[in-house]
């Protein structure tokens, strides 16, 4: 077998093509007579809505793209001019601002207005208000799927799964009413089968970080790798993408390639990225040869690496289970256990928490998490803070100082310990 | 052999020159200002002049502080967190926790017996609880920053300054003055309010004695008293507290110069 790289970069190219097609199709939806649903990433019901003939818009994804393309700041100011306070979630304000300015993505696509708003993740109260605001602005129907927050550490109870499953059938009825089309159950099952296969491949990609060096950065790269799984799950394109990505990552393993020239520190990352300063934020870790071998944010769309899968034999119930188990629907004991498991499974040296001002459902409790890992588990833990959408919260000098001090101390302690 | 540390802080730039035995032989200090490169060059020249050695005699220089990458003479950089830790343990070997209050930063650092950083916490996005807070209070009282500490020690009545904002503290002080409160009591309240914020940072890293108080603010006796009262323990304070970052950097510089010399020796 040749040792020449064959698949390097193929995932990036394919993702670009898939997303371009996705947005092109989306822009044409009203003209071509397709109805449009807006929904959230965590515990999303994409396959189900598509089987009702709807196209999908994910406002969170729009917000993060505006962040990366550095237009979120302007959108946020637009929303603040309307009266939104400085403390309101940056994703929400980006979306409201973007909507006021014509609902155009940074790459120019004008997004179609919603025919249906599906609040599929009720764990964040702000998200409910967000879609209520959109429902009023667009005059669109809104459906809330009430997903009970998980208590205890045993996972959802059967009653909770029943409760969510029942609501999914109600959602189908609402979709049929909005689209005037019958729900296509066989299309739904076929999509769920593709989803399951994509999940298997995605999990293997995530598990590849057990290697030394890790072939991937399971945070800074994984947040891009996860995109098709989040926005187009269940489609042929999505499955094709994970086959390509899987080939590429396995090739990296074979060649011993990693995301930095020399892997020096293996970290677990908790919290969303600083999208508006993504590159600079990543560089601060690359400078120290730090590679994320696991992250929680790459699981906001689904924690499949613990074994949960969509099941074509039971597509409604497995969807309900999936919705209940999404990362931000887990209580702190579960989140903390998951991080502990990652530190162990991926042989990580340290934990880094990036707390964001915008998202309380992510951030509340992170300061305690830091103390817990330092004191109870003796894991070196760094806590830094900025935002996932609002560029004003990113203080580069302060951020760099903390990151440098943390890795410098780790490096120094290793040196004197002779490791 | 001589080595130096240059600490480019947000308010002041400091330099320390050490001889081969790790003894301080020279110091330099000036306001940082807008020209960071020039400030760092000047404090090094000043420190060398006080050591009575030419600048060329300094073999290794480490830059620290926010401007560490602009220290043109620097052979390497170390964060001021690492440097304050190192400097504090060098002067007070039983130090396990460090409180550093500088111009815009307050840091709580926990260290091991070698002076290696185990954990640290800093104020975030807000300068309340830092030297800047004291400077704002001094300004509104018409006093110098070096005067407010001794004045605060003359307080006879406990007064609570609730404000946690460096900008709004001025209006709160004016309000207290207009109500006829004595400046000694107001200033003691200001010092206690900073001590309270420092205590919460220290709690987050898990404070263990001994505690060494570093940074320019440690020169303020009112602040030392307020911290000691709040924590209920005596703290270590050095005459060189404001040079602690530069001292730590200089210690790293001596070690690296020695390591470099022994590598050269071995390769001969």
Strand content of chain B: 15-25%
Oligomer: heterodimer
Mean of residue pLDDT values of chain B: 93
Please compute the radius of gyration of chain B using only Cα atoms.
19 Å
Number of domains of chain B: 2
CATH superfamily of the largest domain in chain B: ATPase, nucleotide binding domain
Structural class by helix and strand composition of chain B: alpha/beta
Largest interface chains and counts: A-B, 22 and 18 residues
Output the radius of gyration of chain A: 21 Å
CATH topology value of the largest domain in chain B: Nucleotidyltransferase, domain 5
Poorly predicted parts of chain B = none
Shape of chain B: elongated
Helical fraction of chain B equals: 40-55%
Number of E strands of chain A: 8
H/I helix tally of chain B: 8
How many individual helices of chain A? Answer: 17
What does this structure look like?
The complex is a heterodimer of chains A (419) and B (268). By secondary structure, chain A is an alpha/beta fold. Chain A has a domain of 156 residues: Rossmann fold. Helices cover 51% and strands 10% of the residues of chain A. In chain A, the strands form two sheets. Chain A has a four-stranded parallel sheet, with helices on both faces. A four-stranded parallel sheet of chain A has the order 6-5-7-8, sandwiched between helices. In chain A, helix 3 packs across helix 5. The longest helix of chain A has 23 residues. Chain A is globular, with a radius of gyration of 21 Å. The mean pLDDT of chain A is 94. Chain B is an alpha/beta fold and 268 residues long. Chain B folds into two domains: 121 residues, Nucleotidyltransferase, domain 5; 143 residues, Nucleotidyltransferase, domain 5. Chain B contains eight helices and ten strands. Chain B has a five-stranded mixed sheet. In chain B, strand 2 and strand 3 form a beta hairpin. In chain B, helix 4 crosses helix 6. Chain B starts with a strand and ends with a helix. At the A-B interface, helix 16, strand 8 and helix 17 of A face helix 2 and strand 8 of B.
């Amino acid at each position: 077998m040749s040792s020449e790289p064959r698949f390097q970069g193929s995932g990036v190219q394919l993702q670009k093509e898939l997303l371009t097609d996705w947005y092109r199709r989306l822009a044409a939806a009203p003209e071509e007579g397709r109805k449009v649903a807006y929904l959230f990433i965590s515990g999303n019901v994409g396959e189900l809505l598509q089987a009702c003939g709807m196209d999908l818009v994910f406002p969170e994804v729009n917000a993060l793209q505006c962040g990366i393309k550095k237009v979120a700041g302007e959108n946020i100011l637009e929303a603040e001019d309307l009266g939104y306070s400085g403390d309101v979630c940056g994703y929400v304000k980006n979306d409201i601002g973007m909507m006021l300015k014509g609902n155009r993505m940074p790459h120019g696509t004008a997004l179609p207005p919603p025919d249906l708003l599906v609040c599929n993740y009720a764990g964040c109260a702000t998200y409910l208000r967000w879609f209520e605001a959109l429902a009023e602005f667009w005059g669109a129907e809104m459906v809330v799927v009430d997903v009970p927050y998980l208590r205890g550490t045993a996972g959802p109870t059967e009653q909770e799964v029943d409760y969510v499953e029942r609501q999914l059938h109600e959602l189908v009825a609402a979709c049929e009413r909005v689209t005037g089309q019958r729900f296509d159950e066989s299309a739904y099952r076929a999509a769920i089968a593709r989803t399951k296969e994509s999940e298997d491949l995605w999990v293997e990609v995530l598990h590849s970080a057990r290697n030394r060096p890790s072939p991937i950065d399971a945070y800074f790269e994984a947040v891009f790798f996860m995109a098709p799984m989040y926005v187009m799950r269940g489609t042929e394109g999505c499955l094709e993408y994970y086959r390509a990505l899987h080939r590429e990552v396995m090739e990296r393993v074979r060649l011993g390639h990693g995301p930095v020239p020399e892997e020096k520190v293996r970290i677990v990352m908790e919290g969303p990225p600083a999208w508006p300063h993504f590159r600079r934020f990543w560089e601060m870790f690359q400078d120290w040869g730090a590679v994320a071998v696991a992250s929680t944010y790459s699981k906001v769309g689904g924690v499949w690496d613990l074994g949960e899968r969509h099941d074509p034999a039971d597509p409604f119930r497995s969807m309900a289970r999936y919705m209940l188990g999404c990362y931000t629907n887990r209580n702190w004991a579960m989140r903390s256990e998951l991080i502990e498991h990652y530190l162990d499974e991926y042989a990580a040296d340290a934990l880094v928490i990036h707390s964001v001002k915008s998202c309380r459902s992510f951030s509340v409790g992170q300061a305690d998490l830091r103390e817990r890992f330092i004191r109870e588990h003796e894991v070196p833990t760094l806590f830094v803070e900025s935002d996932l959408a609002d560029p004003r919260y990113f203080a580069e000098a302060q951020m760099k100082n903390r990151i440098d001090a943390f890795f410098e101390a780790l490096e120094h302690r290793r040196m004197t310990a002779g490791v | 052999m001589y080595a130096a540390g240059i600490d480019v802080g947000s308010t002041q730039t400091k330099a320390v020159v050490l001889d081969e035995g790790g003894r301080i032989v020279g110091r330099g200090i000036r306001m940082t200002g807008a020209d960071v490169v020039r400030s760092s060059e000047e404090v090094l020249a000043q420190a060398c002049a006080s050591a009575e050695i030419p600048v060329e005699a300094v073999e290794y220089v480490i830059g620290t502080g926010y401007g560490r990458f602009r220290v043109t003479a620097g052979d390497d950089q170390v964060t001021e967190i690492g440097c304050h830790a190192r400097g504090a343990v060098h002067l007070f070997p039983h130090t396990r926790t460090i409180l550093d209050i500088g111009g815009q930063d307050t840091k709580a650092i926990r260290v091991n017996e070698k002076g290696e950083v185990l954990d640290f916490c800093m104020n975030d996005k807000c300068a309340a609880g830092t030297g800047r807070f004291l400077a704002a209070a001094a300004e509104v009282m018409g006093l110098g920053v070096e005067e407010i500490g001794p004045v605060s020690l003359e307080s006879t009545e406990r007064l609570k300054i609730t404000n946690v904002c460096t900008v709004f503290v001025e209006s709160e002080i004016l309000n207290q003055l207009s109500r006829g409160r004595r400046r000694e009591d107001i200033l003691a309240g200001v010092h206690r309010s900073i001590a309270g914020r420092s205590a919460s940072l220290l709690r987050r890293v898990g404070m263990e004695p001994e505690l060494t108080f570093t940074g320019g603010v440690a020169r303020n006796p009112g602040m030392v008293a307020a911290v000691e009262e709040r924590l209920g323990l005596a703290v270590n304070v050095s005459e060189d507290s404001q040079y602690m970052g530069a001292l730590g950097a200089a210690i790293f510089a001596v070690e690296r110069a020695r390591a470099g010399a022994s590598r050269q020796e071995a390769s001969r």
